[in-house]
Design brief:
The protein is an alpha/beta fold. It folds into 2 domains: 174 residues, 3-Layer(aba) Sandwich (Rossmann fold), CATH 3.40.50.300; 128 residues, Beta-Lactamase. A hairpin with a 5-residue loop joins β9 and β10.
Length: 310
């Protein structure tokens, strides 16, 4: 069993992130009804056959004081920390860093070095190009790199208005706890060379990314469009109890793409394979053939998955 901790100040967005991860479909309305977390809320889930305990640490000052007075009870034994910072609340940056300082100081004294994923949350679409906010976040990242001497640290910008940003951060963190999981992405990179793929990704039933390949220089808005389309197709597959669905769509510039979402079952676990290629308007048959050929990679995918869960 692995122990995940979502920590940070009150109102940073920890519970919103967990809600988005667990609900995925229609979580937006629920997020705005959330109440502040009291003490610690726990839930359990499985990923690649491993059981995880996910803990949402309430961030109000009285709870933070309690955690730090009894760190062996609350913090010790954590396998992975998602530390959430409200990117828009500049006034609490110092307070947030001070809290993280105390958490990591205790862990270092105990010689515990879990990976740390620092999420700059509420990095909403309307502020992505805000130079002042980006500069402040960059300055904060530079300050936080002092922890990298002892801890493996990754930075992410997340927003509830971009579910992919949240799932990417969550998936990346979990991948740190599995040896050789990067082999899935390496396999997809090799496959892409043969079929000129735009994107290949494998998700578990909860939407956690196992591995993925994106064509270099694919714009963020195009990635988001594909992911939104994937969620739409996955929802349809679930509601219609299907195992495969082919689809076609286009980017903002008008370029069309074709894709498949297929349900795969390896070792009694369900996975979703997403495969996207450019649509060949002059020869749709060729596009179909490329999509069909992905079947040849399934045995290798299954072998890698089995290595991960054994």
């Amino acid at each position: 069993m692995k122990k995940l901790a979502f920590m940070g100040l009150d109102e940073a967005g920890k519970t919103s992130i967990i809600t988005a991860i667990t609900r995925k479909f229609g979580f937006e309305e629920e997020v705005f009804k959330l109440m502040p977390t009291r003490r610690i809320v726990r839930d359990a889930f499985k990923f690649l056959g491993v059981e995880f305990i996910r803990m949402d640490f309430g961030g109000q000052s009285q709870y933070r004081e309690e955690y730090l007075k009894n760190p062996s009870k609350y913090i010790s034994g954590t396998d992975l920390i998602y530390y959430v910072i409200d990117a828009q609340n500049f006034d609490r940056y110092v307070e947030s860093i001070d809290y993280l300082d105390e958490i990591l100081l205790y862990l270092k004294e105990e010689r515990e070095y879990p990976p740390i994923c620092i999420l700059f949350h509420k990095f909403d679409p309307q502020i992505i190009k805000d130079k002042l906010i980006n500069q402040r976040i960059l300055t904060l990242k530079q300050a936080l790199t002092r922890y990298s001497h002892d801890y493996t640290i990754f930075f992410f910008e997340t927003s509830i208005y971009d579910i992919k940003s949240i799932m990417d951060a969550f998936s990346s963190g979990l991948s740190l706890l599995f040896d050789n999981i990067q082999m899935i992405s390496q396999l997809f990179t090799e496959i892409s060379k043969n079929y000129n793929a735009i994107l290949i990704a494998l998700f578990d039933a909860k939407g956690i990314t196992i591995g993925e390949y994106y064509r270099p220089h694919l714009h963020l808005r195009e990635k988001m469009r594909i992911y939104d389309k994937y969620l739409e197709v996955q929802k349809k597959i679930i509601s219609e109890n299907r195992t495969l669905l082919e689809f076609s769509d286009k980017f903002d510039d008008g370029d069309r793409y074709s894709g498949i979402v297929e349900v795969l079952n390896f070792s009694n676990l369900d996975f979703y394979l997403l495969f996207i290629v450019e649509e060949n308007a002059k020869d749709l048959g060729k596009t179909v053939q490329i999509l069909d050929k992905i079947e040849a990679a399934k045995p290798q995918m299954e072998n890698l998955i089995l290595q991960l869960i054994q």
